[in-house]
Amino acid sequence: MIESVIHMLDWLYSALVGPLFSLLGRCLALLLLAPMTALRLPVLMQVVILGGLTGLLSLWLRRRLQLARRDEAFQRRFNRLKAIQQPIGAIGDWRAQDVLYRASDTLLDEEYNAYLARRFARHVMTYLLPIFGVMAWLDAMAPWPPSALALPVAPVFLLSYATVVFGGLFCSRRQRGAAC
């Protein structure tokens, strides 16, 4: 049984997933790397541009997944649940207080743990998958000779990515109050 499932997954990867990602990588190379190479941009500038574009992709995903709105909604819901505990202190019987506090704490713990798990998954999709996907694509598609690079690709890519993401987050926070 397990061998047939493994065989099916192996076939699925070799017949569908592998070729799909290979085709996607070639299309991205044609759309992104070929024009930059034709413009004779230095390799370091190409890496900076790709890091910036990946940062813009993460910011776009952040907006599409509505991360800020979801966090604010959770805070409101969690504060309402915490407010339920306020009247428990007025109960005269300490045993009843203890039971009610434990029940409400369990509810708060479950709610918070579910929130953390969902938030982690959303942040992985928003920030880590684009980084790892583009870095893996660059590693597989870009035949840059080491002599062409003054610095390693990863730190330059991550620095440009982080600059764009942090700049975008800073501007979005400032836009709530004033123009960026």
Tell me what you see in this structure:
The protein has helices at residues 2-38, 43-65, 67-83, 94-141, 153-177. The N and C termini lie far apart (59 Å). The mean pLDDT is 86. It has 180 residues and is mainly alpha-helical. The longest helix has 48 residues, at 94-141.
Main attributes?
mainly alpha; 180 residues; 5 helices; 83% helix
Fraction of residues in helix: over 70%
Helices and strands: which structural class? mainly alpha
- Beta-strand content: under 5%
Q: Calculate the mean pLDDT score and round it.
A: 86
Shape: elongated
Q: Tally the helices: what do you get?
A: 5
> Main sheet?
none
Radius of gyration: 24 Å
What is the tally of beta strands?
A: 0
* End-to-end C-alpha gap: 59 Å
| H and E string | HHHHH
Which runs of at least 5 residues are low in confidence (pLDDT < 50)? none
